Amino acid sequence: MALRNSQRIWILNKAPTGPITSETFRLETRPLPALTAGQLLVQVQYISNDPVQRTFISAGPNAIIKPGSPLRSSGVAKVLESQSQKYKVGDRVFGPFGWTDFSVVDDSFVTAPAAELPGKPYASISPLGMTSLTAYGGAIDVLDVKPEHTVIVSGAAGAVGQVVVQLAKNVKGAKKVIGIAGGPEKVAYLKSIGADAAVDYKDPNWKDHLAAIVGKDGIDRFFDNVGGDIFDHILTVLNIHGRIALCGQIAGYNGQYTPFPHFVEIASKRITLQGFTVGDYITRWAEVSKELRKLIDEGKLKVDNAETVVPTKIEDVPTTWTRLFEGKSRGKLITQLEA
Hints:
Helix content: 10-25%
CATH class of the largest domain: Alpha Beta
Shape: globular
Strand content: 25-35%
Order of helices and strands: EEEHEEEEHEHEHEHEHEHEHEHE
């Protein structure tokens, strides 16, 4: 007899055109089939929360997730039953399981055995996950940080930003690394992981504080996770031939886009602006994960306080996810599903 014959799964109910509301998602109970050869019954334990998921559900013809479809998310799950030669009962696996408590999947659906670090059974969706791969691609390849550069990172205390800060300073040896984050606690955290300075954008005088930090040096490299007013202002302090890695625009994901009065600076300063996604580096995941493990072992990438893990009932999964857009987490926001 099957250990589980149903799942609870979150579905996109109504594509949002602005902020998320109670009508955006709905929770359904669906039957689970009996296992056939090559299949697994898994219990999802940890769910990755990522700002890009907001773009997946936006209203419009190009939406990745349509109303009536399950929400997408990577996660770590435990194998409860197995008809697979690849994975046995008790194994932890990593894959795109979505917002659900249980699932029956083909073993080919699983991305890989779950990577683990001491005290971090969710490492596949945090230090060794897509966010770190994104940071690596942007800092190492797109920005091509050199020791002579002054680097600034927006959203610096987030999942991607905190890794960029450390790669730029501790690995590439940048002359000065500045983080932008919201609140004194996050500013202190950034300094603890290697940032030379950090600015609290919630302080009404943050632009003056930044000017004092930058001085006459200006900014050579800008890793942007945020967009909005922060992006526009950094254009005014970027040096000629500066470079921008455009990773995210979280300030506008809920439809609140900000005009960029200083966008002309890109032309006048001959700034290179390059957008990129983690998909550009997916074929290098194994290579980069190995390098990240090495950096962690060497103490160049600190991961002790790199996540906000929120114990969550399946009924409250969307509520935890929306913390991404409320500044209520530091580092990687992870949902720990309560059994």
